[in-house]
Amino acid sequence: MKPVAIIRHSLTEGPGHFATFLDSHSLPWTLIRIDAGDPVPRSCDDYSGLCLMGGPMSVNDELPWIPPLLDLIRKMIAADKPVIGHCLGGQLISKALGGQVTRNPVKEIGWGAVSVVDSPVAREWFGGIWGFESFHWHGETFSIPEGATRILESAACPNQAYVLGKHLGMQCHVEMTAAMIDDWCASGADEIAAAGEAPTVQSPESMKIGREARLKTLNQSAETLYTHWIKGL
Questions:
Q1: 46 in helix, strand or coil?
Q2: What is the average pLDDT across 24-37?
Q3: How far is CA 187 from the centre of its chain?
Q4: How far is CA 227 from its chain centroid?
Q5: Are 99 and 143 in contact (CB under 8 A)?
Q6: What is the C-alpha end-to-end distance of the chain, expressed in Å?
Q7: pLDDT single digits (tens) 159-192
Q8: Any residues with CB less than 8 A from the CB of 27 and at least 6 apart, and which?
């Protein structure tokens, strides 16, 4: 099988548990480091699927790699090769498909409950899971692209995930590891402090409470999604 292309936009926002999952299923993958100057592939011919990770930038920023990446997403979807996006990645897929990315009413940073929408499409992806505690770090949100179905929501952000056939876009971060949380808390300390006492923004200390158990549950929910996604490879 050709490898899954994983696009990294920021040094600390790597593939995390997604890569662990692919390795456990003996599925090849290759990392394309936008943050290190790697070019966006012009063709989708060398890849079986595409995974887009998060990043602190906005899809509305005038960055030179965004237009070719949006084009790659559209090429992958046209070629019926599955695409999956985490946070910024989900926003990129939405924009590539004609959706809009705008400011969310509040920032979500830290652990927060998400609920599975009661629909046949959501059941296909989540099985018996009706909700779980996910990790969040975003101030913007995507619209659901035309033809796609919303499958996940939260009180602070209604559009937490959507699917279009074999393609999945998420606003939340299901790929987290303990090291990633530590790195983000360090690099995002100013952003957390600037949020003040916002109820949807947690302190680094709060994020560490029960972290091992939280990550175990999150990993299980992520693997349910990833298991359905790889069926499209």
A1: coil
A2: 98
A3: 19
A4: 15
A5: yes
A6: 9
A7: 999 999 999 999 999 999 999 999 999 999 999 9
A8: 1, 4, 230, 233
Which own/partner pairs from 221-226 qualify as long-range (CB within 8 Å, at least 24 positions apart)?
221/126, 221/129, 221/132, 221/134, 221/174, 222/17, 222/18, 222/21, 222/174, 222/175, 223/17, 223/21, 224/125, 224/126, 224/127, 224/129, 225/125, 225/126, 225/168, 225/174, 226/18, 226/21, 226/84
C-alpha 129/C-alpha 224 separation (Å) is 9
Cβ atoms of residues 17 and 219 within 8 Å: yes
- The pLDDT confidence band at residue 93, using thresholds 50, 70 and 90, is very high
CB proximity list for 183: less than 8 A, separation 6 or greater: 12
Encoded amino acid at 178, one letter: A
Residues recorded for the chain:
233
Count Cβ atoms within 10 A of the Cβ of residue 186 and give its class: 0-12 exposed, 13-18 middle, 19 or more buried: exposed
